[in-house]
Amino acid sequence: MCIRDRYQRRVHGEGRFVMDSSNWNLNFFNYTIFPGTFRTRPKEDKERLHQVMWNPKMSYVNDKPTEADLKESFAMEEMVRKKFNVYDTEEGIANKKEVLDRLQVIVDEWAEGHYTKFFASNKAIAVNKPVNGVDVVSPWKCVLLPFGSFRLGVHTPDADIDVVCLAPKIFSRENSFFKDFLEKLKTLEEVTELQDIKEAFVPVIKMKFRGIQIDLVFANCANNEVVRNASNLSSNNILLGMDDISIRSLNGRRANDSILNLVPSPENFRVTLRMVKLWATQRGIYSARLGYLGGISCAILVARVCQMYPNLCPSKLLRKFFAIFSNWLWSEWPVYIEEVKWEAGSLEELNKFQRIDDELIPPMRIITPAFPCINSAHNVTLATLSTIETQLRIGYQDIKDIVGGRKSWAELFKRIDFFKEYVNFLEINVLGRNVPVADFNKYKNFVESKLRRLTEKIERQTVDKGSLFNDIIQLHILPTSFKREEVDGEYEFCETYYYGMKLKRDCAEEKVIDLREPIRDFLKQDLLIEPDKSSKADVTVVVNHLESSQLPSTLLSRNILKEFSNTIGE
After folding, report:
1. Using one digit for the tens of pLDDT, what is the confidence trace for 421-470?
2. Which of 518, 531, 248, 229 is nearest to 372 (CA)?
């Protein structure tokens, strides 16, 4: 059964058709997605418009790019190369590959030692000896597989590298990975800023290896042959016997492989994706952790446009991206690049890991292509969706001005002037004293992971005679933290986050909105901070309301606004 049938079946009883193309606004498709007008389009062509949207295997036939189109794409890409630091150098790429190779050697040493220890009582320990001149992979072999932006080929020079360690079943996550391997890493001079985050949805070891940020997750597989042939992970059979955390850990790599196989031109896809990620970062809406677009969501959106227009060059694909998604009805139309299938027979038990059939329809649905499929936009809230939609509309207007010759491509990637855009702010100060830097950073990351809860609590606040906060106020958390000196000097460390707020529409009278309750609940329920004891704690959080005139002067300087050095990404 395909995703469309499941969604229609589930919501039909409520009188809504989430994916029923008969309810679509045909003018939207004719004017923004496809050339021509509604009046001149024949019935057969209208039906094809619907089919293209619901069938990722179909595309809309269009002409190949002209020489002018190719020149425009080249000029756009060269401008981005010169003005923005988003392309890694050959030396940088070689350095990252060298780091991954060195890390693989360290994993091999640890894995061999673990295997030897595990079978110490067994004299017939398997060794890696050639058979008929061919190397045989040892049964203790663990494989490192990069995923995310590095795997897709769109990483920036300072981006972290996401890596999954795929291991045989004899290696456990708790004792082998987070104990023995972690201890080995602690002995290495090459490793700094080592953190283990076991409580995360996908448990991870974070570290800097020779100065490069590495996020390492772990998956163990019941079938050793899968580890030996890790270059091909497309079969769903490899998931049999895996626990849910291992499946989630491996899902990123499998989704990346699927995306690259599903786009008609990987190179055009990469260029367009770089542009979209740069734009989202510049406009303050790139951070899956805080409820905005993450790397995988951006990749799927761009891949969908590439599927629809297989012959277009990157500059035209970017135009279509904004034309389509600035008008998208996110609560009704999921975005997916591969029909979602549900397993049967011996693999039917794996269906429980699919995460697309929630009882409550989320604000945004961007479905990953690899089984088990999940909604990569599950962190998006009503408030963050509203901010994403606003920025998409601004982007589409910029695109129209670029086409009309009124703006240059550089204008599309102009950084949002956040502290002038909004008039009221919530200042979230994470404070620390008498604690090691590593412990403060761990606490800061914990608070950061909970900020989406604060967003949800605020957006559900009732104001204005029963209206919800989100209906009246634009709430925008900037995906950047700022290191500051604490005003009273009591604390050694201070990391600050800002929410911007402004009215969505003109109001006839001034409104007083009380946010004390959601803030108090956030501090007490999510951060477990007792207000009357917070001033005595070594690590704590203080929330202030500020108007524009009360902002620290350093935030308004051009240097601070130009360098969002602590941008929160994935």
Report:
1. 999 999 999 999 999 988 898 899 899 999 999 999 999 887 666 677 87
2. 248
181, HSE (Cβ side, Cα atoms, 13 Å): 31
CA-wise closest residue to 376 among 153, 220, 148, 197: 148
- How many angstroms separate the CA atoms of 515 and 425, rounded? 12
Q: In terms of DSSP H, where are the helices of 418-508?
A: 418-421, 437-459, 469-472
**Does 150 score more than 80 pLDDT?**
yes
User: HSE (CB half, 13 Å, CA atoms) of 332?
Assistant: 15
Distances (CA, A) of 117 to 112, 120, 185, 385: 9, 5, 18, 51
Rounded distance between C-alpha atoms, residue 367 and residue 334, angstroms: 7
| Of 383, 388, 527, residue with least CA distance to 458 | 383
State the Cα angle at 84 between 79 and 85, rounded to 5°.
Answer: 130
Q: What is the pLDDT of residues 469-500, one digit of tens each?
A: 878 889 999 999 998 876 567 888 999 999 99
User: Are 338 and 369 spatial neighbours (Cβ–Cβ below 8 Å)?
Assistant: yes
| Whole-number Å distance between alpha carbons of 432 and 441 | 9
CA distance 110 to 144: 13
Residue 438 CB neighbours (<10 A): 12
Which residue is listed with tokens 């936009």? 377
d(CA 395, CA 210): 38
16 phi, psi to nearest 5 deg = -125, 140
pLDDT tens digits for 236-270?
888 888 899 999 999 999 999 999 999 999 999 99
Express each pLDDT in 12-40 by its tens digit: 223 222 333 333 343 444 434 443 333 33
Distance, CA of 443 to CA of 433 (rounded, Å)? 12
Terminal CA-CA length for the chain: 32
Contact call for residues 88 and 156 (beta carbons, < 8 A): yes
Q: Are the C-beta atoms of 296 and 368 separated by less than 8 Å?
A: yes
